[in-house]
Amino acid sequence: MPPEHRGSTRMMLSLAAAVALAVTGSTAVSASARPKTAELREVMFVGNNWDGTADVIKSTGDLARIGRINVIPDKDQRLTEIYLNPIKLAFFLGIRLGPGEGHDQFVDDMYSTPDGSAIVVSRPSFADVVSIDVATGKVNWRFPVSGFRADHMAVSPDGRRVAVSASTSNTVHVLDIETGKQLGSFSAGDKPHENVFTDGGKYLWNMSIGEVNTALDDPSMDWTKGDRHITVVDTNTYRQVKVIDMRERLDAFGRKDLSDAVRPVAFTPDESKPYFQVSFFNGFLEYDVAKDKITRAKTLPKNPKTSEDRTTWVNDSRHHGLSMSPDGKKLCVAGTMDDYATVVDRESLQEGPLVPTSKPYWATVSGDGTSCVVSESGADRVTAIDFGTGEKTASVSVGDHPQRVRIGHVAADWTGPSAS
Predict the structure, then answer these.
(1) How much is the pLDDT for 29?
(2) 54 and 69 Cβ atoms separated by less than 8 Å
């Protein structure tokens, strides 16, 4: 066990009985009991994965930081539970040594509630989803996912349901965002990852990525990565309506060399075509939903300084992060291992300037729709790139290892929790 945890571990073990009687993260706070704020402010939440914090920044312009939320206020209690359970401890340390790159993963994804009173966060190392009151910094509710790790989330168009991938149990849970109550769940492929609601929330797509933490990264060993496919379910019943095996589509397209592990996805405004990244590929593909086939592929430049040893690429990613301008004309790509981000014209697939960025891990769209916003996990900052010019327009420092960036809302006068 790491030296930094030994002293606190002995203390927590001796106090385990007392801690068990402490206020738990599963205690729900009624939505009606929380103060309502009529006027809301649009912001961006930046999940600092290794910090266990979420920075709140302006959603447009200079991206200036407004405040910061501690999303692990119950850390001591969670660690006590983990240290007292050998199986949980094994997975906790496995996450640290694997996807965490030697760090604990305290925040993967986050969304705000419709009234802006809380932020709902998936916490990989704690295998849960929590709601944090943004005014007090306290836990409203906690939902332990099945298995031992929580991953990507998605919020429904009406903002009332949140889906979370439970990556070690091959399950997706759908929760009421206000109460944390499970509304439904369904089975997905191996290691479910990205989630996307479509058709006004009628359907939910889940993309499974398989095993990304082994060194069996040579193309000849791709079969060892598991059963990877897209699962589409009806959100009224959570029953499967379609399974899309990209292995078959890639082979038919003539790209047997590419992995079928679908990573970040960006749909066109009419949802007729998703663009998606796959493991190990410096580029992306276009899929036609109606035709059920891959129609185009775009290979983006390699950074000559990037090692060609696939085992050095983080979690099998070469490029990880994709977003689309609101008009559907431009794509923004985070070239994670190649240390750049670029805007691509969707019609011609011609990329713009390669904007130097340090291990960009995610791409989203600014509140006004004019810019792509990427998280630079290697430099602990967030950077905006203009969709029109392809040039960098703003950058702001954030916490340790930013990953997901999401649009959300807080009270208009909010500057941070009043208590941790």
Answers:
(1) 39
(2) yes
* Displacement of CA 184 from its chain's centroid (Å): 20
Looking at residue 38, what is its pLDDT?
61
In degrees, rounded to 5, the angle at the alpha carbon of residue 45 between the alpha carbons of residues 182 and 197 is 45
d(C-alpha 138, C-alpha 74), whole Å: 9
The whole-angstrom separation of Cα 302 and Cα 107 is 30
Rounded to an integer, what distance in angstroms lies between the CA atom of residue 76 and that of residue 208? 32
| 123 strand-pairing partners | 128
Tell me the pTM: 0.89
Q: What is the Cα–Cα distance from 333 to 341, expressed in whole angstroms?
A: 6
pLDDT per position as a tens digit, 108-121:
999 999 999 999 99
Q: pLDDT per residue over 61-94, tens digit each?
A: 999 999 999 999 999 999 999 999 999 999 999 9
**How far apart, in whole angstroms, are the C-alpha atoms of residue 80 and residue 180?**
23
Query: Alpha carbon of 81 to those of 85, 131, 168: distances in Å?
Result: 6, 19, 19
DSSP designation for 222: G
Contacts of 226 (CB under 8 A, 6+ apart): 189, 190, 191, 208, 210, 211
Tell me what pLDDT residue 419 has.
57
* Contact assessment for residue 205 and residue 196, using Cβ atoms and an 8 Å cutoff: yes
Please give the single-letter amino acid code of residue 256: K
Distance CA 266, CA 275 (A): 5
Tokens 């369904």, located at residue: 186
Radius of gyration of the chain (CA): 20
Long-range contacts formed by 266-271: CB under 8 A, 24+ apart: 266/322, 266/323, 266/324, 266/331, 267/196, 267/198, 267/324, 268/324, 268/328, 268/346, 269/324, 269/326, 269/327, 269/328, 270/328, 271/198, 271/199
pLDDT digits (tens, 9 = 90+) for 15-40: 333 333 333 333 343 333 444 546 99
CA distances from 123 to 92, 147, 324, 326 (A): 11, 13, 26, 29
Nearest Cα neighbor of 276 from 210, 204, 196 is 196
